[in-house]
């Protein structure tokens, strides 16, 4: 199952059991189907938000709780889902990773570690060493997810 | 006096070792007794074993590298090769904490070893044990464990060994002796103990306080910068100060124990001066000898971090160096991940690149999700294509696209239901053949189409040969 990501895992002794691409694909596609079938009447923006959340959720779900970033991400998603029902507007404030925020170009030079902490879910309570570990895993999973989504889009759009 | 002679041999050997290998070798001489001493402490070992299982990722290879090294050491074949192997094995250990854990795990597995009657095979493993115990303590282990280990080490008499190796060896042997009192030694050690216990038992009582104080000194000064290693060992946590404080509290506790002894105060001072002197000797001696040996072994891991020549031996700087190396190691991994960063050097630039990459990935996710939301209405009909495409992609090339013809005959876009019907028919024909596949959770029971897709997916995962047939029909557009 890991044939595609095996090459990038071989030269990285840091890599543990990377979630199977198939698992991520199955999670994501199921979520996609669910979104499509259950919320056919929602707006385009709402659907895109749901899909984005489904992407992160499937990514975190396939990794499980082995990584702190996945646990933090799952926690964030679950808290968001709980917030959504009582107050949909509040859900916007709980920022998912990648949500467009105020651009702060100056901060990047000032404190890169802090910026990285904000990017990686659950990174605020980590030391630099662990932050880099989590960033590695997060980048790997994120790139896999992006490739997966790209494949889905490609197959659909053809 | 046989012991002394043997220690002399050991010392020369130790020096020889330290000459052509990193100074870690001396530590490894110390470490072998730890293997012998470890079994007497099943409680401590047991307490340390659970962390072993949860040790970080590098612990496993380190543990494996550990065992041969230690065992080679124990057999005491004069070949420096063995010790070099052990040292090389040690040098390959990047994380000290896991070393401690793995060492403890190995110590658990070490019981069957029967040490030769000659004492010299007990190098300063006890120092290692102490450090390991310290790590466990700092990581939440019980104080009792550390006390046990400390007391075992503390049994060492106030011997004025010319070389620290001797002293540690003696300490180790006596530690093993005293351990009899604390924990019943396994029978394997009986042969070794008898000869030494008689000679050392008389010294034991008088030196218990000394040993306790010595163990504090041992832990503090240590040999060859053990003080730094021990302090560094404690610095597993990010804050070095906090770890140092913890270590000092432990040492304070040790000192409290020491002062319970009759001769605590005087001996403590004497031993303190002694160990300080030893530390100076060690640092100078090993600094000189290890000038060229300052490989990564000198600074890897908590246990064997040692000051390189010309470098500050301050515990803070050593810990800082360990931390920096860990960070640089992880930056290397990230460099491999982030495309186009292989030639980038420097942490700041690298971090910038990483941040950019993460942000770009997140933007891509958002963009693709918008795209998917736009094409969502058509998703239903082409779901099997998505699945097949992803399946084929994840399975790699083995699933070759044997027959495109059927796929290509379909219209490019599936707005109508006809292609889906044909798909459904093909999949329905395949359904009876699917047997024994496992479907973890069917979240879309209401949609038989999705069920088929999901089933096909799992079927594909479980029965690749049949999946080829399916993919043959469905792979046309997956490129």
Automatic annotation (TrEMBL), chain A:
Superkingdom of origin: Eukaryota
Pfam families documented for this protein: IBH1_N
Ranges where the IBH1-like N-terminal domain occurs: 26-80
Keywords: Transcription, Transcription regulation
TM helices/strands, residue ranges: none
PANTHER family: TRANSCRIPTION FACTOR IBH1, TRANSCRIPTION FACTOR IBH1-LIKE 1
The protein's name in its UniProt record: IBH1-like N-terminal domain-containing protein
Organism: Ensete ventricosum (Abyssinian banana)
UniProtKB/TrEMBL annotation, chain B:
Cell location: Nucleus
Record Pfam families: HLH
Gene3D superfamilies: Helix-loop-helix DNA-binding domain
SUPFAM superfamilies: HLH, helix-loop-helix DNA-binding domain (SSF47459)
Natural source organism: Ensete ventricosum
Name of the protein this chain belongs to: BHLH domain-containing protein
A single Gene Ontology CC term: nucleus
Keywords in alphabetical order: Nucleus, Transcription, Transcription regulation
């Amino acid at each position: 199952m890991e044939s595609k990501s095996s090459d990038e895992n071989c030269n990285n002794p840091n890599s543990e059991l990377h979630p199977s691409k198939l698992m991520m694909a199955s999670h994501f596609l199921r979520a996609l189907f669910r979104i499509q079938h259950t919320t056919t009447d929602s707006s385009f923006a709402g659907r895109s938000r749901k899909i984005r959340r489904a992407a992160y959720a499937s990514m975190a779900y396939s990794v499980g709780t082995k990584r702190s970033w996945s646990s933090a991400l799952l926690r964030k998603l679950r808290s968001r889902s709980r917030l959504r029902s009582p107050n949909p507007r509040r859900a916007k404030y709980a920022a998912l990773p990648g949500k467009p925020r105020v651009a702060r170009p100056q901060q990047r030079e000032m404190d890169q570690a802090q910026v990285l902490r904000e990017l990686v879910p659950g990174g605020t309570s980590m030391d630099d060493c662990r932050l880099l570990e989590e960033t590695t895993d997060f980048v790997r999973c994120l790139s896999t997810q992006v490739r997966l989504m790209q494949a889905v889009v490609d197959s659909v759009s053809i | 006096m046989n012991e002394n002679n043997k220690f002399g041999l050991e010392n020369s050997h130790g020096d020889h070792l330290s000459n052509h290998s990193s100074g870690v070798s001396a530590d490894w001489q110390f470490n072998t007794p730890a293997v012998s001493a470890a079994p007497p402490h099943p409680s401590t070992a047991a307490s340390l074993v659970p962390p072993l299982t949860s040790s970080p990722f590098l612990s496993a290879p380190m543990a494996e590298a550990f065992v041969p090294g230690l065992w080679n050491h124990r057999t005491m074949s004069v070949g420096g090769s063995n010790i070099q192997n052990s040292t090389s094995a040690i040098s390959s250990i990047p994380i000290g904490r896991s070393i401690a854990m793995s060492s403890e795990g190995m110590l658990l597995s070490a019981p069957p070893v029967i040490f030769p009657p000659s004492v010299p095979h007990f190098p300063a493993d006890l120092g290692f044990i102490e450090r390991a115990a310290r790590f466990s303590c700092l990581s939440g282990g019980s104080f009792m464990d550390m006390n046990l280990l400390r007391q075992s080490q503390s049994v060492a008499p106030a011997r004025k060994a010319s070389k620290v190796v001797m002293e540690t060896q003696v300490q180790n042997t006596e530690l093993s002796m005293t351990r009899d009192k604390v924990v019943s030694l396994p029978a394997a050690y009986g042969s070794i103990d008898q000869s030494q216990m008689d000679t050392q038992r008389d010294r034991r009582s008088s030196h218990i306080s000394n040993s306790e104080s010595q163990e504090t000194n041992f832990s503090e000064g240590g040999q060859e910068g053990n003080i730094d290693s021990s302090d560094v060992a404690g610095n597993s946590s990010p804050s070095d100060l906090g770890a140092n404080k913890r270590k000092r509290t432990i040492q304070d506790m040790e000192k409290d124990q020491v002062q319970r002894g009759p001769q605590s105060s005087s001996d403590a001072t004497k031993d303190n001066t002694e160990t300080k002197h030893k530390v100076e000797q060690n640092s100078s001696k090993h600094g000189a000898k290890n000038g060229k040996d300052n490989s990564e072994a000198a600074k890897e891991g908590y246990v064997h971090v040692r000051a390189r020549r010309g470098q500050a031996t301050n515990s803070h700087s050593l810990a800082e160096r360990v931390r920096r190396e860990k960070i640089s190691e992880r930056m290397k991994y990230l460099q491999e991940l982030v495309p186009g960063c292989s030639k980038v050097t420097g942490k700041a630039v690298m971090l910038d690149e990483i941040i950019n990459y993460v942000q770009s990935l997140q933007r891509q996710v958002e963009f693709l999700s918008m795209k998917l939301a736009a094409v969502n209405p058509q998703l239903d009909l082409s779901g099997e294509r998505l699945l097949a495409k992803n399946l084929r992609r994840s399975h790699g090339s083995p699933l070759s696209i044997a027959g495109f013809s059927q796929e290509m005959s379909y219209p490019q876009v599936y707005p109508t239901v006809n292609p889906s019907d044909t798909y459904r028919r093909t999949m329905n024909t395949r359904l009876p053949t699917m047997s024994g596949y496992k479907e973890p959770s069917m979240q879309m029971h209401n949609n038989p189409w999705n069920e088929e897709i999901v089933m096909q997916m799992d079927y594909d995962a479980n029965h690749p040969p049949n999946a080829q047939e399916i993919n043959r029909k469905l792979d046309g557009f997956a490129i």
